[in-house]
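Table S5 (text form). Sequence records supplied for joint modeling of the two-component complex.
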Amino acid sequence: MYIIKNALRCISRAKSRNILIGVIVFIIAVSSCIGLSIRQAAESAKEETLNSMSVTATISFDRSSAMKDFTPTEKPEQGGEGGFDRNSFKEMMGKASSLSLDEYLKYAQAHSVEDFYYSLTVYANGDDSFEPVSNDSTEQTQNGSMENMPKGMSSGKAGRIFGQDSDFTLVGYSSETAMTSFADGTASVTDGVVFSEGTENFDCIISEELAAYNDLAVGDTVNLVNPNNEEEIYTLAVVGIYIDSSANESSFSPFGSTSTDPANSIYLSYNALNSIVTSSEETNTSEDDSETAALSGNLEGTYVFADVDSYEKFEEQVRDLGLDESYTVTSSDITAFENSLTPLNTLSKTAGYFLIVILLIGAVILVVLNIFNVRERKYEIGVLTAIGMKKGKVALQFLTEIFVVTLAAIILGAGIGAVSSVPVTNALLANQIESTNTRAEQTEQNFGRGPNLMEDGTNGKAPTAPDSKGGGMGGFMDMFNPESENNYVTEISSATNLTVILQMLGIGILLTLIAGAASMLFVMRYEPLKILANRD
Amino acid sequence: MSVLELKDICFSYDKTPVLKDISFEFEKGKMYCIVGKSGAGKTTLLSILSGLAAPTSGAILYNGEDIKKIDKYDFRSKYIGVIFQSFNLLTKFTALENVMLSMDIAGVKGKDKKSKAMQLLESVGLDEDEANRRILKLSGGQQQRVAIARSLSYNPDIILADEPTGNLDSETQNEIMEIFKNLAKNGKCVIIVSHSPDVAEVCDVKYELKKISGKKK
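The corresponding structure-token record, covering 753 residues in total, follows.
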């Protein structure tokens, strides 16, 4: 007890020395608190969002893995038929490109899956009375290159598969849950009603823009034509008209087809669209399946998980259920989320390095100061040990002094750091985002796309056309700018929490021990007789 | 019975013999003076007596027990009170704090430590105002008194003083010697190391150190 009393007395009697040590520790504490808070903010943002996020995932064919596994035949000079076997590759890709509905449903049985829905996408043309929403540049592109060709016939099967030159995108949903844009409120029916869930009736809803373009209203019908077989026509009844606010952002590419314009999307039930595809297959049956002109659809299943942990378990579970290694489980939610944290994570990493440097420099300064301190107080050590105070207790007293000063400075520094950490972090984060965007902008400019698209200072994001319902260039830009759709975490609301406080305390103890260890070594080395004899 | 006994103490510094076969005995209630010329080894002997240095050979018995068996810090803080020539007080502390710290180190228990310390300081001639002054604000004589009070703070049997009057005027010197006499009267064993014949005169027993030897007179 007297050691503590003596330590406090010594601190009060040597103010200037202890204030100097305190100021250094205070600076270390403020810097450390901000650094730790930034790291904690990044962690918290990640954890909180991940915990509250409903994750969706899809199973898709792993093309890059397939390419790695695909072994080209030997070259002629090596006795083989030569180079890359395109036919084998096509065969492999054809067989494995998409899972069937039964397979999707089988994997939906995995324990971690909370919900499952699916959609079928088919590309089709309209007849003469039903035209897609289009803009001038698109017309010119299409007319210029394809004026003598029937609509939808310009690229044969490619058109059927990718919808490159089709008029409309037909999406058949398995349930209302699958209609995510309606569920999350980005789209809504403004007239009529949505088709009944699971109905096999050819009921559809069309965009407001498409309805206005073709002077259509609820109760009217539209005719859709197989791009590969003009005689194959399907009539859909318009039961509702919708507006999709996300269409303002996801724009149209002048180099794609009109079908990729969100305004030209027609929604109906999966059962209805599937019966169209089935009917088309029956109509276009030929001996050679590979040359069929039937409508083909792209089935995509979406698995919903309660949390990230469930998502992470899912892959293992579907492998157990028999999913081939050539398929991969991906979550666009997770990817988008991770991208959104990029600036904060970069800042967190920088803060980590900064923290290490600050602590190293701080520790060195404290050690040096304490060595000077002990040398300066050599006589005091000599007197204390001469009158019978054990060296260990003298060292403990010195350690207590350092600890008290360090703790006080750490508490003060942590307080100031906690108060300033949020504005400082947000300011640094803003700089980081600006820097990230500037790099993205620079990249765009390097590809020759920047000046035309970024005059309005949108930091690399493609501007959306005023009449974005009719398309724009954002979609095209996004192909080359994977981050353009990222909603970066731009600010944090709190940063310093109990973890940071405990870490600060840990830093205080660590600095005390490092600085104290140096002084303890000196104390233990000193012999009172020599000190006092030299002084005499 | 001797409270402290030196048996054939030898001490060498860098292979140079400083003390050889010193055998002294000290009893309670007496004042001893160790005299000798410069280089005779007075300070070395004092260091050995106070446990700050260990003899090269020989034994020191405290109440018949070899002090090697006693923790040297305990010996210094509980059994022997040392008054150094240059006082060796903590200059940033007050006189009272110096005395109280010594009591704390010795493990003196009780809530009235402060009043005991104050009494000790008063007994050596310091008032309350002087007791609460920092050491550097006290005169040499006052510092000497604080050093004496400190050495008495844990009530040791032996008081060891190194040149206690060396830096003092004759009046103060007399006052200090009077304090030592009283201590001896009260049953303490007072050992003074000095080269002053005046100090030796007032002591009950005088030991003279000569180079490499010591003998009782």
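Note: Confidence is low (pLDDT under 50) at residues 136-163, 250-255, 451-485 of chain A.
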